[in-house]
Design a protein that fits this description.
- By secondary structure, this protein is α/β, with parallel strands linked by helices.
- It has three domains: 53-201, no CATH class; 205-237 and 402-562, no CATH class; 245-398, no CATH class.
- The protein has helices spanning 11-23, 139-143, 171-197, 211-222, 238-253, 264-278, 316-325, 353-369, 391-395, 398-401, 408-412, 430-444, 472-489; strands at residues 78-86, 95-102, 106-113, 120-124, 147-151, 203-209, 229-233, 416-422, 452-457, 495-501, 517-524, 529-532, 544-547.
- The strands form three sheets. It has a nine-stranded mixed sheet with strand order 1-2-3-5-4-6-7-8-9, sandwiched between helices.
- The radius of gyration is 24 Å and the shape is globular.
- InterPro entries: AB_hydrolase_fold, Tannase/feruloyl_esterase.
Length: 563
């Protein structure tokens, strides 16, 4: 298990996470059920209450699973290609690895501990358009002795790349990507678990970021009984993003030749101006903007003199670009087309040719092959999208691709969801998630906080990284641990502890950050914010307390956007 680490981490914070690792690894007793852990709001006090894990003996050999006929299930007709025992290594206990597919083309990998199962099931999500089986995303759950599963969302992009949407020309594969593959993988895996152990998992969990985050919200909306707890990171709803927002970002940040409008030097200078104006709104000067909505910044103040193009000002073209990017996407009549925008603090990403180019490619592929009922010509370019005419056509596909923000059945089933999102995520706007959860709240009202918790992480880009990079894998794993504590003990998560790397270091998603964690900060359940208590290091999470936000934004979270 990889936890947040760093010289600034306190003994109490480290102990709390270590306790969780033990807490979730199993329990004493002979029933073979999931851990019956002692509930506590203070995780650091649980060490004396945590029971030791027990092994559950399989009722049949691993290899026998390859002989089972799972194709008789009409909902999830599955075939096992191989089932082999894998020796213990790298902190993962010996397990039975099952590889197969669900008709028509959903490839999956399931890993079942042979004698250390904790009675739980964890299923991971994927990223972008998927097309591969992200079994590596289950490693931390495997180390905690979960039975795990991963799947390719219904198509194979080996050798093509995860931004290709050619598969979507098949209507059936569109449905698999949209929602079916995640659901039927859960159905088939639970059947395999029952065959192997003689019992179904007592608790089931889902976790993913980006497309995986959207998978989690789709599960809560469409299949509320599949999972007891869902971790949804930076959820990427494809029809909104490929259809509008990523298109908008690419069109207003890239030149016709594909190069960024902003040079690296100009983006760095612009970021410094924004940080200088907005950094201390939370009472600390630390290079992080707690909530960009609390800062007003007028880019016009940075305009170059007529005809000038200097390092310390914005040209007319640059000023026009930031006006579009830092505003909501709109059509010619001024109607908002997407409930998000570039946020203050994201300036460095305006010079990232690779990421911006990927947004253009993602949008182009989605629009060519997946976004419309009738596909446009094969040479359709992302710049060909008409913001006045085409949104009405995009709207017709929303029922398929979008996770409707209706969690009433999920709430009644006792389901829990933890959502985290980076404030510096330029590809999936954090305000979109605020708008989405405002819609959820309209439907379940006072039950919302008992069903969904949101954590907005200052400085974190899409699923990880940032100017002070955040290890997204640690965020996801800690979220899973706290989710289990919520589901099984009724202890709702009120904080995440986020570790930041040194400024300018790389990594954070999908790989780890370079170098050590140099700052630990708590992120409290929205809308609470973290406030320094005035004593000790500001790089130590123990020296922060929850507080009410300085500005109440609740009235502005529900954005009036129209398709």
């Amino acid at each position: 298990m990889r936890f947040l680490r760093g010289a600034a981490a306190t003994a109490a914070a480290t102990a709390a996470l270590a306790v969780l690792a033990v807490l979730l690894s199993g329990a004493s007793g002979s029933s073979g059920t999931a851990a019956q852990t002692a509930g506590s709001g203070d995780l650091a006090t649980l060490d004396s209450q945590v029971a030791k894990p027990v092994g559950v003996d399989p009722v049949r050999g691993c290899g026998q699973l390859a002989k089972e006929n799972l194709a008789v299930d009409d909902e999830a007709p599955a075939w096992v290609g191989s089932a082999k025992v894998v020796a213990a290594s790298d902190g993962i206990a010996e397990h039975c690895r099952v590889v197969g597919y669900i008709e028509p083309a959903i490839r999956f990998e399931v890993n079942l501990p042979t004698d250390t199962w904790n009675g739980r099931y964890f299923q991971t999500g994927c990223g972008a358009f998927c097309g591969w089986v992200p079994a590596e995303s289950c490693i931390d759950a495997q180390r905690l002795n979960f039975a795990t599963a991963a799947q390719n969302m219904g198509h194979d992009l080996t050798g093509v790349g995860m931004f290709s949407a050619l598969w979507a020309r098949d209507p059936g594969l569109r449905e698999d990507f949209a929602h079916r593959s995640t659901h039927v993988t859960a159905v088939a895996t639970k059947r395999l678990i029952e065959l192997y152990y003689g019992q179904r998992p007592e608790r089931s969990y889902f976790g993913g970021c980006s497309s995986g985050g959207r998978e989690g919200q789709m599960e809560a909306s469409r299949y509320p009984d599949d999972f007891d707890g869902i971790v949804s990171g930076d959820p990427a709803h494809p029809q909104r993003l490929g259809g509008v927002y990523n298109n908008w970002i690419a069109r207003h940040s890239l030149r016709p030749d594909g190069s960024p409008i902003f040079s690296q030097a100009k983006a760095t200078w612009l970021h410094k101006q924004v940080i200088a104006a907005c950094d201390d709104a939370d009472g600390l000067t630390d290079g992080l903007i707690e909530d960009p909505r609390n800062c007003t910044f007028d880019f016009a103040d940075l305009a170059c003199a007529s005809g000038e193009d200097a390092a310390g000002c914005l040209t007319g073209k640059e000023l026009a670009a930031v006006k579009k990017l830092y505003g909501f996407p709109r059509n010619s009549k001024g109607r908002i087309l997407y409930p998000g925008r570039v946020e203050l603090g994201q300036e460095m990403q305006l010079a990232d040719a690779k990421s911006l180019g990927e947004m253009g490619q993602l949008s182009m592929e989605w629009l060519r092959h997946a976004a419309f009922r009738k596909n446009p010509p094969g040479d359709f370019d992302f710049r060909d999208l008409d913001y006045d005419r085409d949104p009405a056509k995009l709207r017709k596909m929303l029922p398929l691709y979008e996770a409707k923000p209706d969690f009433r059945k999920f709430q009644r089933a006792g389901g829990k969801m933890l959502v985290y999102h980076g404030w510096a995520d330029i590809g999936v706007a954090p305000r979109e998630q605020l708008d989405y959860l405002a819609e959820v709240r309209k439907r379940i009202g006072s039950q919302t906080d008992d069903t969904v918790r949101l954590f907005l992480i200052p400085g974190m880009k899409h699923c990880g990284g940032g100017v002070y990079p955040v290890d997204g894998r640690d965020v996801g794993t800690q979220s899973l641990l706290r989710m289990v504590n919520w589901v099984e003990n009724g202890v709702a998560p009120d904080r995440l502890e986020v570790g930041y790397g040194a400024k300018g270091t790389q990594g954070g998603f999908p790989g780890p950050i370079e170098g050590p964690v140099v700052r630990n900060r708590p992120v409290f359940s929205y809308p609470q914010v973290a406030r320094y208590d005035g004593s000790g290091s500001t790089d130590d999470a123990a020296n922060f307390v929850p507080a009410a936000p300085p500005v109440d934004h609740t009235g502005s979270e529900d954005i009036a956007w129209k398709w």
